[in-house]
Specification:
2 domains; four-stranded mixed beta sheet; Zincin-like; about 35% helix; 6 helices; alpha/beta
Length: about 250
């Protein structure tokens, strides 16, 4: 009798490295895998990632990086320019919401009272002496509640236009996706999307609803998207600048 041979999982080795490219010191993540046969470069909100074969030589790595030096520096500078500044969770912080910014102000803590927008100010009842952790928690909870409300309004508007009926709308915190749609009709949308301009929120909602018609990214799928969002190409390009996939 012949015994089935169990294939060993290919190891992945991850390193953090630095290199000088076009006169700048660049930090990058090197991922070596036994499955790979070529070297590829990826730049996103986390910086430069180099994927390489497990036994790729240092000479080969150096050559690829130097050949792509100008492209790497240009793309990294572009990401840095687009990256949203960190929020300092304190009185006077600027809070992004639906493409606009609101000023955070602390109010006395009252049981059952949630953050509320008044004009250009977000009133957060976390207590006048609240620390950053409690302020961030209160605002995040508010974001999630508002996200679900805004997303449901968008779905109610676009679903009839696309002649679809999603089974449920849920929130996700995925780092790599703005949304997804299951074959069972459940649409999941990243709650952080509620910080984006409304036209981008609309586009992501339309994108996911379109999957209820075409569960792929074929030409037919994009025609469905275009029927409800004619400017989808511009929205798609703009969305990519925020560092998360569709």
């Amino acid at each position: 009798m012949f015994k089935a041979l169990r294939r060993k999982a290919s190891p992945t080795v991850v390193e953090q490295r630095n290199i000088h490219l076009s006169g700048k010191e660049i930090s990058y993540t090197l991922k070596r895998s036994g499955y790979r046969r070529s070297i590829s470069l990826r730049i996103d909100d986390r910086g430069l990632t180099v994927n390489a074969p497990l036994r790729a030589s240092e000479k080969w790595l150096h050559s690829v990086l130097q050949d792509k030096a100008e492209w790497v520096v240009e793309k990294l500078d572009g990401w840095q320019a687009k990256k949203a500044p960190p929020i300092f969770w304190a009185e006077g912080a600027r809070i992004p919401f639906r493409g606009e910014e609101f000023i955070l102000t602390l109010t006395p803590k009252v049981r059952g009272v949630v953050p509320q927008l008044h004009g250009e100010t977000l009133h957060v009842p976390a207590g006048m002496e609240a620390d950053a952790v409690h302020i961030e928690k209160a605002v995040t909870e508010w974001y999630r509640e508002e996200a679900l409300r805004v997303f449901r309004e968008c779905v109610e508007h676009f679903a009839p236009l696309l002649q679809v009926l999603p089974q449920d709308i849920k929130l996700t915190s995925a780092r790599t996706q703005w949304g997804n749609c299951s074959s069972g009709g459940v649409v999941r949308l990243n709650w952080q999307l509620v910080k984006m301009p409304l036209h981008l929120i609309d586009y992501v909602v339309v994108h996911e609803l379109a999957h209820l018609v075409e569960m792929n990214h074929s030409a037919a799928f994009w025609r469905v998207v275009e029927s409800a969002c004619p400017e989808y190409k511009e929205c798609r390009a703009e969305l990519k600048s925020y560092g998360v996939a569709e």
